[in-house]
Write a structure and sequence with these properties.
By secondary structure, the chain is mainly α. The protein has helices at 6-18, 25-33, 42-51, 57-65, 70-100.
């Protein structure tokens, strides 16, 4: 199967995780990978990955009170969503490959 969108996904991933931002690039990469996430972010990142529709103003307020800026919270959210999306995409592509072979 030809991955016709692979280059675009690589570019999106690079821009989200490696571009300059308010949140350190290493932290964004850790969030996307779901590993070594800063403890204050773990509950929020878990909620974004598993049940994004359940995120509330109180979740954001808790992060603000923990010292995160609006930009850092936004970048953490995007990194978490990207990581979750890529994981689901890889799972789907593997399933498709298995069904074809």
């Amino acid at each position: 199967m030809i991955d016709r969108h692979g280059k675009r996904m690589e570019e999106l991933t690079r821009r989200v995780l490696a571009s300059p931002g308010a949140l350190d690039a290493e932290v964004r990469a850790a969030i996307a990978a779901g590993k070594d996430v800063p403890p204050a972010l773990v509950p929020y990142i878990t909620k974004v990955v598993q049940h994004a529709y359940k995120v509330t103003d109180e979740d954001i307020l808790a992060l603000r009170e923990a010292g995160y800026s609006e930009d850092e919270i936004f970048e953490a959210t995007v990194a978490a969503a990207l990581g979750a999306g890529l994981k689901r995409l890889r799972t789907g592509l593997v399933a498709l490959e298995r069904s074809v072979s």
